Recover the amino acids of this structure.
């Protein structure tokens, strides 16, 4: 069954229909088009098929709603205004040229379009009073009559790449119909003529002005290009005046790096409707966000429109934001906690949303994210009836936590992922590819290979996407930037210097030293003689048919065991009491797991039972009431844990003799957490030393980076000062 209707799904695109009409009708004399939007990308796609058509006329719509709103705002009656119509068309065309993804083909298409208008190959007109929603493409052959009717296409497709369906990534779903009836073509032609009589011509001079005001102009000197580069890259920040911010509260310094962040952040709000404020901890992100909100308040239609700001914060930071808001006298602000977004009424009245600790909203399956996204996507409705997208500031020193989707979800709060304002227009497609690459990297059996692949993925995300919508500086960045460094020095701001970790050596008595060696040996050795941490390696011992359900079961088991080994060593580093409590929890958790296994019946015992228990079981099974043999009784859990408990407590539990000998020697028995300081420890020839670092333990003077294996015969180094 054939139909005259077609969409942009599959092969049934407007471009293919236009191509078919052009190729199969070589005697076409007229092409008339009525479109709401005209893009150079769309014209460039069909330009090769227009060579043999003598007369081409295009009538475009303009944004009449915006012009009418401007008239009404000034209390004027809107009538046909040819000058406004012409300026509106020039503005839209200039925007199309400036925002189109650059390529040699796009540039050639735009220049060809301008040249066709200049040579009057195309007659271009704009309607000054109607916002044209209808789309018409009328084809009339030479000698047009009822026997040579031509064709007309009408529907929803504009003359753009998305409307034509030439780009699968950005194609719209359109609904059009192709008609060949003479009466239909004649009626469409008459309507075109009527609209054309009401329109105004787009003269070649207007196209020349547009071309010369964009990058297509050829009259550019290297000096002009340099200034253009600075203006586009830095925006309003090139006009930085340290005295411009005059309303800071008492006690706050006017720091150059913060003022630059305010200007850059405001520029990103205007350009992309949002950005990440990701300075490291301690550089004043809260102050910067409040200053941007205050600047936005006075530049967003004030005083006829007074902006409203919503600040979403974790409960622990609510008081801090309230204090900052009062200090900076920020008006029309509502502060809520993360879980209260759904309680905010009338989301359409808020112009700006600030989200502190924004990484908490990285999961798009969480209800809180759904509430926040719905709020951020609700357009602002102003008192004059106009609407505008919300502006969003995401405050987080760590916007990335786990996977690429974390960033995509947060960007979706202020961007349309299918048609973004960034260089990468289709962010949904971009992040889908990165997410697949990330999953493939996680399946790599080699850790180093996986690490390199993940690093490459995030490097690409950073350079192609995040760099365009992020403000992030570290302390190192500030001190290496000469203007910032000079400003900080003049205002007396000094960042503390963090030195590399240095080991603190603990003096232990001989008895305690021996106990310590045995303890660490049991905790860190990887053979069966030490703690095996089997409770945390359970999936490693599953049967093959069950084990295949878990990816990298052996590696995960080994990692969990390593984590528990490290935690126990850290508890020993903290204090004997903390270590003893951890052992209790370790033992209790193991007991619970064994008891869980004990509840499941088995057909054979794990170990032999005592004669008495066996005889009782046999006697019970021989009872006349029982016709079915019951399985032998399993031993109690305590009997099965004897080996584990004995090995653990003999190696780890401090005895009274050990502790008393420690006390007699005058050596402190409580081991403190290692710290990074430069204080010296007095040497004592009679005691040994033990170094404790952030990552491991060692029996020598030089700390090692991995937990070491100790033996009772290990040489004990002499006590030295550190």
């Amino acid at each position: 069954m054939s139909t005259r209707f077609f969409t942009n799904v599959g092969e049934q695109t407007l471009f293919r229909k236009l191509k078919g009409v052009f190729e199969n009708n070589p005697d076409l004399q007229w092409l008339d088009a009525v479109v709401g939007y005209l893009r150079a990308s769309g014209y460039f796609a069909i330009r090769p098929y227009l060579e043999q058509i003598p007369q081409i006329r295009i009538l475009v719509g303009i944004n009449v709603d915006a012009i009418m709103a401007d008239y009404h705002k000034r209390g004027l009656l809107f009538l046909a205004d040819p000058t406004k119509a012409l300026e509106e068309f020039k503005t839209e065309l200039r925007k199309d040229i400036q925002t189109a993804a650059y390529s040699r083909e796009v540039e050639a298409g735009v220049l060809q379009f301008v040249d066709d208008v200049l040579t009057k190959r195309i007659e271009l007109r704009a309607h000054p009073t109607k916002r044209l929603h209808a789309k018409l493409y009328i084809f009339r052959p030479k000698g047009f009559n009822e026997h040579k009717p031509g064709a007309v296409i009408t529907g929803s497709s504009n003359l753009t790449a998305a409307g034509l369906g030439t780009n699968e990534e950005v194609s719209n779903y359109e609904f059009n119909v192709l008609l060949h009836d003479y009466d239909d073509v004649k009626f469409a032609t008459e309507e075109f003529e009527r609209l054309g009589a009401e329109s105004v011509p787009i003269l070649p001079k207007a196209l020349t002005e547009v071309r010369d005001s964009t990058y297509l102009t050829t009259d550019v000197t290297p000096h002009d290009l340099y200034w253009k580069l600075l203006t586009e890259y830095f925006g309003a920040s090139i006009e930085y005046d340290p005295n411009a911010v005059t309303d800071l509260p008492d006690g706050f310094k006017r720091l150059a790096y913060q003022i630059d962040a305010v200007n850059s952040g405001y520029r990103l709000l205007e350009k992309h409707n949002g950005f990440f404020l990701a300075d490291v901890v301690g550089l004043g992100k809260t102050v910067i966000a409040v200053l941007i909100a205050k600047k936005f308040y006075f530049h967003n239609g004030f005083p006829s429109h007074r902006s409203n700001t919503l600040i979403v914060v974790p409960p622990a930071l609510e008081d801090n934001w309230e204090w900052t808001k009062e200090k900076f006298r920020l008006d029309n602000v509502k502060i809520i906690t993360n879980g209260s977004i759904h309680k905010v009424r009338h989301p359409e009245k808020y112009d700006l949303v600030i989200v502190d600790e924004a990484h908490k909203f990285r999961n798009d399956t969480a209800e809180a994210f759904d509430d926040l996204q719905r709020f951020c996507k609700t357009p602002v409705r102003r008192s004059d009836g106009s609407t505008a997208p919300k502006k969003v500031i995401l405050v987080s020193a760590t916007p990335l936590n786990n996977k690429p989707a974390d960033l995509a979800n947060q960007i979706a709060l202020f961007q349309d992922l299918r048609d973004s304002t960034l260089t990468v227009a289709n962010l949904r497609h971009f992040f889908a590819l990165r997410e697949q690459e990330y999953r493939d990297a996680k399946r790599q059996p080699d850790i180093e290979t996986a690490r390199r692949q993940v690093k490459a993925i995030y490097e690409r995300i950073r350079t192609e996407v995040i760099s365009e919508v992020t403000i992030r500086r570290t302390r190192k960045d500030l001190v290496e930037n000469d203007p910032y460094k000079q400003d900080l020095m003049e205002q007396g701001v000094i960042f503390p210097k963090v030195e590399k970790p240095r080991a603190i050596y603990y003096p232990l008595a001989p008895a305690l030293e021996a106990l310590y060696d045995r303890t660490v040996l049991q905790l860190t050795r990887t053979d069966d003689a030490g703690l095996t941490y089997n409770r945390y390696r359970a999936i490693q011992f599953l049967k093959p048919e069950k084990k295949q359900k878990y990816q990298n079961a052996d590696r995960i088991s080994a990692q969990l065991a390593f984590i528990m080994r490290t935690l126990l060593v850290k508890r020993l580093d903290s204090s004997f009491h903390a270590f003893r409590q951890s052992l209790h929890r370790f033992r209790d958790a193991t007991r619970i797991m064994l008891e869980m296994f004990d509840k499941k019946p088995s057909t054979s015992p794990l170990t032999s039972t005592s004669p008495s228990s066996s005889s009782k079981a046999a006697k019970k099974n021989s009872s006349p009431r029982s016709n079915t043999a019951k399985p032998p009784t399993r031993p109690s859990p305590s009997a099965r844990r004897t080996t584990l408990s004995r090995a653990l407590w003999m190696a780890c539990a401090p005895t009274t003799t050990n502790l008393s000998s420690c006390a007699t020697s005058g050596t402190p028995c409580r081991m403190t957490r290692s710290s990074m300081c430069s204080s010296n420890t007095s040497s004592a020839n009679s005691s040994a030393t033990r170094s404790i670092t952030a990552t491991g333990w060692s029996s020598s003077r030089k700390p090692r980076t991995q937990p070491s294996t100790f033996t009772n015969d290990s040489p004990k180094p002499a006590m030295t000062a550190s």
